[in-house]
Amino acid sequence: MKIDWKKAIGLTAAVAMLVPLAACGGSSDGDGKSGASGTEDITLSVWAPQEDQAKDTNWLGQVEENFAKDHPEYNITWKNDVVSEGDASKQVSTDPSAAADVYMFASDQLGVLMDAKAIGQLGTDAEKQVKEQNGDLEVDSVTGTDGKLYGVPYTDNTWFMYYNKSKITEDEAKDFDTILSKAKVTFPLQNSWYINGFYDGLSLFGEKGNDADAGMVFPKDGADITSYLVDVVANPNFSNDDGASGLAAIKDGSADVLFSGTWSAADVKEALGDDYAATQLPTFTVNGEKKQMKSFAATKAVAYNPNAKNTKAAAQFAAYLGNTDSQKLHYEMRQIPPSDTSLSDLTTDDIAAKAQADTMANTAILQSGLAGMNDWWTPAETFGKALVNKEITKDNAAAKYQDWIDQTKGTIAE
């Protein structure tokens, strides 16, 4: 839902509600001066990915132009620089006072940004906007340990399943074991962002991913799942995706199923043509018990810097970048699927976007943004590589599983 600040409430009230009192550490006047016309001269610095600023896909520039038109009370000088969402926390936390006023970030960085006091809490109306636009998982992705919201999501970030529908039917695509029996499957098992997909019951820092005391809790039957994966790796229809080999196999026809995200959509669609299909993640069976494969889910979001000279304008623009109209424009210019549920009709014919939305809603767990997640990545990668290299066997599956848990400082569910 788009928030029309000037129509919804008076401008002064809107600005006050965008930034909570606790966040107003900077000068409320910013660096501007009011002229005779009543406009305020301000400067806003913005960090965004290169693709959003490129000549042919300058989404950022268009949104800045729209914002300026909708906010005639400001005479804005824009200072844009290239910083990707993935690099935001590193760049911002290095020196928050020198960082951009508004930036785009991956939600798993929230903990680092909060620790650096480099991300501003949303005000009442911006929080309302986020909750009206998004599902629970998206809202949780920008919720801090204090229960407050710290970003405006604009797209989801997860992985799902692409498949060749000439090899497996839509119904068969719901079950991994059936898929593996009928088609060539490639999966990045050594990748620590993917291997969790098989460990149904895994909990990382509580249901909302923001409870540090909850820690990492691994499924009780994880040793049995590990033994199951030993069989998967040994199956001649399975191949490990090293990050490039999976897509290459889809392209040359030596694989029929690929697990990836929307970033692979164009390539997979080109490779499979009329047989192109994608869906949420399938189930699989371990010792007669049905399990649900689940991906890590996160979002990409917009934040304002509480150290900005004009926190009010920065907070306004952050909310504006993530509003309905801006998300719609993002999809039209760059095919970035919106997280805004009111725009679902926009992607009706977009197979990958629908698969992503279904995965976020049904077959995903939140990727925590807490610093404790640092204990996950290397041990998970090491464990995955051991599976791929067949160093883990049915005989040592339980011991290796326990070693993995110990390395992450996790526990086993009771």
Please give a handful of descriptors for the protein shown:
alpha/beta, single chain, five-stranded mixed sheet, 414 residues, SBP, D-Maltodextrin-Binding Protein, domain 2, signal, maltose binding
Oligomer: single chain
How many helical stretches? Answer: 16
> What is the domain tally?
2
- Low-pLDDT sequence parts: 1-19, 21-30
- Structural class by secondary-structure content: alpha/beta
Overall spatial form? globular
Share of helix among residues? 25-40%
Which architecture of the largest domain per CATH? 3-Layer(aba) Sandwich
Q: How many angstroms separate the termini?
A: 42 Å
The top-level CATH class of the largest domain is: Alpha Beta
Strand content is: 15-25%
The main β sheet shows up as:
6 strands, mixed
Q: Tell me the total number of β-strands.
A: 16
Write the CATH fold name of the largest domain: D-Maltodextrin-Binding Protein, domain 2
CATH superfamily descriptor of the largest domain: Periplasmic binding protein-like II
Mean pLDDT: 92
**Rg (CA only):** 23 Å
Structure description:
There is one protein chain. It is globular, with a radius of gyration of 23 Å. The chain has two domains: 23-157 and 298-361, Periplasmic binding protein-like II (D-Maltodextrin-Binding Protein, domain 2); 160-296 and 365-412, 3-Layer(aba) Sandwich (D-Maltodextrin-Binding Protein, domain 2), CATH 3.40.190.10. The protein has helices spanning 5-8, 11-18, 59-70, 88-94, 110-115, 124-133, 136-141, 176-182, 222-234, 245-252, 265-272, 311-321, 324-334, 351-362, 374-388, 397-408, and strands at 40-48, 74-82, 102-106, 152-157, 160-164, 185-187, 203-204, 216-218, 238-240, 257-260, 276-279, 283-286, 289-292, 295-304, 364-366, 411-412. The strands form four sheets. Strands 1, 2, 3, 4, 14 and 15 form a six-stranded mixed β-sheet that branches. The chain has a five-stranded mixed β-sheet with strand order 9-6-10-5-11, sandwiched between helices. The protein has a three-stranded mixed β-sheet with strand order 7-8-16, covered by helices on one side. The longest helix has 15 residues, at 374-388. The protein has 414 residues and is α/β, with parallel strands linked by helices. Strand 12 (283-286) and strand 13 (289-292) form a beta hairpin. The chain is 36% helix and 18% strand. Residues 1-22 form the signal peptide.
